[in-house]
Design a protein that fits this description.
The complex is a heterodimer.
Chain A lengths: L1 H20 L10 E7 L5 E6 L9 E8 L5 E3 L10 E4 L9 E9 L4 E3 L3 E4 L10 E10 L2 E9 L14 E8 L6 E6 L3 E4 L7 E9 L12 E4 L12 E6 L6 E6 L9 E8 L5 E3 L10 E4 L9 E10 L2 E4 L3 E4 L16 E3 L4 E4 L15 E2 L7 E4 L18 E4 L5 H28 L1 H8 L13 H6 L2 H8 L8 H6 L67 H5 L4 H7 L8 H5 L9 E3 L12 H11 L29 H10 L24 E3 L1 E4 L8 E4 L4 H9 L5 E3 L1 E6 L3 E5 L39 H7 L15
Antiparallel strand pairs in A: 1-2, 2-5, 3-4, 3-6, 6-7, 6-8, 9-10, 10-13, 11-12, 11-14, 14-15, 16-17, 17-20, 18-19, 18-21, 21-22, 21-23, 24-25, 25-26, 27-28, 29-30, 31-32, 31-33, 34-35
Chain B lengths: L7 H12 L6 H4 L15 H6 L2 H25 L8 H28 L15 H4 L4 H33 L6
Classes of the chains: A alpha+beta, B mainly alpha.
């Protein structure tokens, strides 16, 4: 009702005023309530905007009423909140009441009132913005903090301080547009950490009560955030320096942290012995953080002292010095253009440019490698090094090569061929062996030759040209009788008989003369009577020097079916002294003269002396005639057994007494003891022809015809007789032992020519240094005809 | 005809690095100068190539001669270093013998090349023996290091000069 009343009154007034206005003045315009606000919920204020004043000064009046009341009140306070405002203080404010507020403008003419405003206190609460916003920054450890502080909005009443506000803060860097809003809570300060160093920030705060709205943002506050700590750069380090070709070199370094600011690096160096410091000539060629020294700036055999300096706004730092001698930092680039080739070379693989397993290739640019396992895959890499003081370059990139396995076929073929060839060869060889086996065996292992008569050509014999042979031999009465043939012995046995008539020589000198014979393996055939080693030791008295002659068992002769007489006669006994010396008229002793084996032709039986001579000539250098006279002191290597007789004189006397006795004396070589050995020589037998004293004794070498002579041997009295030749003297003198059984003509010694003259020593002739003494008859008896195989000392009778 | 000192190189390097590592700070002081520094030697390949080969030979001879004496003393003094491994000892002796042989060979060569007599001019005496016999271990070691360092460098120089000569005389500079 009241509002209707008011409004009607206003209409009336307005009509009145307009009526009046027509006169130029009117009532004021309608004011307008702008807003009403409560700061703290306990008071509030309203502001209005006046309308036109109608030409006359207006008065404004605010009327309000509470919705629960009809009473209209007038604004209690027009001043506090400023002009055109109404301030409702605590007493007039009821937060739970809705106020209806009207403002009336009055002037002389009339009045006008605004539209009523319904105001709910609680809905118009809006505090003021906080005040006294202050900002601070703090930087520690490169982190910046922002401290914001403010105060709550001031209120007229001190009691408003108990209000609790909620605050909100917002900030943004100056350049940016978006605010960062932070809800602070109820405190009046706040710390911001996530700040961008170096930016300028704008900060505002606002507050709010539990009801209502946020206040306005406070005034801006700006602050500059510092840029963190500006450090000088850390120390850089020099990584390495290398020279690829020994004429230039490059050094690289590694920068450290720059402290937040841009840093510059400079490389400085000085040379050994100089004080001056230079700067790197070229920072660019080798890339970032490097320094390239070209030829001009590179010196050998001088140590460079290199350092790197990093500088920024805050300061600079220098690396540790690095000492470099260019000669020791040479490291070439890896080799390029590697080609691998596999070549089959008859079961070998050839790989070029291979350097696996770090084989040292030396200075070649090619390398062949063999014996690769087939079927395997190889990885190849190469690197190089300059002479000996540089460094190995990097390995070249890997290259792969695979060795195929298909060479087996060729391999097999080869082996097959080899096998076939070898089997062929074996077949041929065996065939040859079979066919010519004997010959080959003979070639390889020559057979042991059988004994042959020396000087006798078996061929001649076979062919039957006996006459020629005989004439050659100077013998007659060829062919020999069967006896003699039987006497042919092929070999000489050394029998171990009781008699041991022929004993091997002992080294110890014995009183007996020993005649030791050695059988030679001379291939020459010997006649039956040519028992090579039949050398009965003549019993001689006197000392006998041991002669190295091996006595052959005369008994060997027995085996050949010799006439026993021979054997017995030819038995020689070493042990026996020479009993026969005294008695036998025959010479028992006989010597088989051993001839040196290299005495090939023994045909000349005629001349035993010659044989002797030859023998002597051909014997050892040291050898000398066995028969040595007194004056001769030769070594008797001569295989002739010697008998020395002491009683040469006696014998001679004895012999002398028996003219028909042939005394033979063999004087042993004084130095016979020094003749340790006798060459195994053939013992040949000499047929001694009994020689009268007035005759020239002849000696016939025994031959195959000795069979005939054997008779004669056995039969004393024959003109021929076989006498043992004891020794040969002077190469021409044959010392014979006369056959005592027969009436031997004295064997005289005489120089013998190359004929079949037999030198014999005659008793009477004592020209020679020796004499022959007749061996004892008994000896003779037992010894049988002594004969000498002349073949051995027959000179080369062709 | 040409002898190479390449053998000495790794030996010297071993000898140096083994005992006298850079950590000891020797290398910083080691640029004291070698006793052969007074011999003016070409410092790089071009210089070496420009020297007449007779002069080069003489130079080589001079260096070798200058090292004869020090090597003898080195071989004998090195035995007194405590804890010196066996290898150092016999290697030192080997180097000394090698140097002698080299010297002889070079003298022969120079004698052949030079129709005249070989001049004895180029020679630097060595007076470093007392330093090898110092009582203070560190100083003595440093002296050894210095000597070895000089030896290594000089042997490398000679090696290179010989190679230059070889290239020049045998391969006609085609190497």
């Amino acid at each position: 009702m009241k509002p209707r009343l008011i409004s009607s009154a206003q209409i009336i007034l307005q009509l009145a005023l307009t009526a009046v206005g027509l006169t130029g003045q009117s009532y004021p315009g309608k004011p307008q309530i702008i807003r009403c606000r409560s700061l703290e919920k306990e008071t509030f204020s309203c502001w209005w905007k006046p309308g036109s004043d109608g030409g006359l000064p207006s008065n404004y009046t605010l009327f309000y009423s509470k919705d629960s009341e009809e009473k209209i009140y007038e604004c209690p306070d027009y001043l506090t909140s400023g002009p055109n405002s109404c301030y409702f203080d605590k007493n007039h404010t009821n937060p739970w009441t809705t106020y209806i507020i009207t403002v009336m403008a009055t002037n002389e003419i009339g009045s006008n009132s605004s539209d009523p405003q319904h105001v709910d206190v609680t809905s118009i609460v809006q505090p003021d913005a906080p005040v006294n916003l202050s900002l601070e920054t703090n930087t520690s450890a490169n982190v910046s903090y922002l401290w914001a502080k403010w105060s709550p909005p001031p209120l007229a009443d001190a009691s408003s301080n108990s209000h609790v506000y909620h605050y909100e803060l917002r900030l943004k860097p100056e350049e940016k547009e978006e605010w960062e809003t932070v809800s602070v809570g109820m405190q009046t300060h706040y710390e911001v950490t996530s700040l961008q160093a170096g930016a300028k920030y704008i900060v505002q705060v606002r507050c709010m009560l539990d009801l209502g709205e946020w206040s306005e943002w406070s005034l801006e506050r700006r602050i500059q955030i510092p840029k963190g700590e500006c450090l000088p750069p850390a120390k850089p380090t020099i990584v390495k320096c290398r020279s690829p070709e020994k004429e230039t070199f490059t050094c690289w370094w590694k920068p450290a942290s720059d402290g937040g600011l841009s840093t510059n690096h400079t490389l400085l160096y000085s040379k050994e012995g100089e004080e001056k410091v230079y700067e790197c000539p070229d920072y660019k060629t080798a890339g970032p953080n490097s320094c390239y020294f070209d030829k001009k700036h590179t010196s050998f055999w001088t140590i460079y002292n290199i350092t790197v300096r990093a500088t920024n706004e805050m300061g600079s730092n220098v690396s540790d010095p690095h000492y470099v001698d260019v000669t020791y930092i040479v490291q070439p680039d890896p080799p390029v253009n590697i080609t691998l080739e596999l070549k089959k070379i008859w079961m070998e693989w050839e790989v070029r440019m291979l350097q696996s397993f770090t084989i040292s290739v030396g200075q070649q640019t090619q390398c062949k490698m063999f014996s690769l396992n087939p079927g395997k895959r190889y990885i190849v890499q190469i690197h190089c090094k300059p002479d000996h003081h540089g460094l190995w370059s990097e390995w070249s990139p890997e290259m792969y090569i695979e060795v195929p396995t298909d060479f087996r076929v060729k391999d097999m073929v080869v082996w097959i061929i080899v096998g076939v060839l070898s089997s062929l060869i074996c077949l041929i060889m065996s065939w040859i062996m079979i066919l010519k086996g004997y010959r080959m065996m003979a070639f390889i292992l020559p057979p042991v030759p059988g004994p042959k008569i020396k000087g006798i050509d078996t061929h001649l014999l076979e062919t039957g040209k006996s006459e020629e042979l005989l004439s050659a031999l100077g013998c007659h009465g060829f062919p020999p009788t069967s006896d003699c043939e039987e006497l042919l012995i092929e070999y000489l046995e050394v029998e171990d008989s009781e008699d041991q008539q022929l004993m091997p020589s002992h080294d110890t000198p014995s009183k007996n003369t020993r005649i030791i014979l050695k059988e030679t393996d001379n291939d020459s055939g010997r006649g039956s009577c040519d028992s090579p080693s039949l050398l009965p030791v003549k019993c001689r008295e006197s000392r006998s020097l041991p002669s190295p002659l091996q006595t052959q068992d005369v008994k060997a002769k027995e085996k050949k079916g010799r006439k026993g007489s021979w054997e017995t006669q030819c038995t020689a006994s070493e042990q026996k002294t020479l009993p026969c010396n005294n008695e036998s008229t025959k010479s028992c002793t006989w010597l088989a003269v051993q001839l040196p084996s290299n005495q090939p032709a023994m045909f000349a039986y005629h001349s035993t002396v010659d044989a002797f001579k030859i023998t002597l000539n051909t014997t050892n250098m040291n050898s000398s005639p066995v028969l040595v006279g007194n004056e001769e002191n030769h070594q008797s290597l001569y295989p002739i057994a010697e008998t020395v007789y002491d009683d040469i004189e006696k014998k001679s006397e004895m012999a002398n007494s028996k003219t028909d006795q042939i005394t033979m004396q063999v004087r042993q070589n004084q130095h016979n003891d020094k003749s340790p050995f006798l060459n195994p020589k053939l013992m040949d037998y000499v047929e001694v022809h009994k020689v009268r004293q007035d005759e020239e004794p002849t000696l016939l070498l025994k031959q195959k015809e000795s069979s005939r002579k054997s008779k004669k041997c056995t039969v004393p009295g024959t003109s021929k007789e076989y006498t043992k030749v004891s020794t040969v003297v002077d190469h021409h003198i044959l010392v014979l032992l006369p056959d005592q059984r027969t009436q031997h003509p004295p064997v005289s010694q005489e120089p013998v020519a190359e004929t079949s003259q037999n030198p014999q020593q005659s008793q009477t002739e004592k020209n020679t240094s020796y004499s022959m003494t007749t061996p004892s008859d008994s000896r003779r008896d037992t010894s049988g005809s002594d004969y000498m195989d002349p073949s051995s000392f027959m000179p080369s009778f062709k | 005809m040409y002898l190479y000192l390449h053998y000495e190189e790794p030996v010297c390097a071993d000898l140096q690095d083994e005992r006298y590592a850079q950590g000891r700070g020797f290398i910083a002081k080691a640029v004291n100068g070698c006793h052969t520094a007074s011999l003016t030697t070409p410092e790089d390949k071009e210089q070496a190539q420009q020297i007449h080969h007779e002069d080069l030979l003489n130079l080589i001879l001079g260096v070798l001669r200058s090292w004869n004496d020090p090597l003898v003393h080195l071989a004998s003094e090195v035995q007194r270093i405590k804890e010196a491994p066996e290898t150092i000892l016999w290697k030192a002796v080997e180097i000394e013998e090698q140097n002698k042989r080299l010297l002889e060979g070079m003298e022969k060569i120079v004698g052949r090349v030079h129709s005249g007599e070989v001049g004895n001019d180029i020679y630097t005496p060595w007076e470093g023996l007392p330093s090898l016999q110092l009582a203070d271990e560190d100083s003595r070691l440093f002296a050894f290091y210095n000597l070895l360092h000089c030896l290594r460098r000089d042997s490398h120089k000679i090696d290179n000069y010989l190679k230059v000569l070889k290239c020049r005389l045998i391969h006609d500079n085609n190497c």
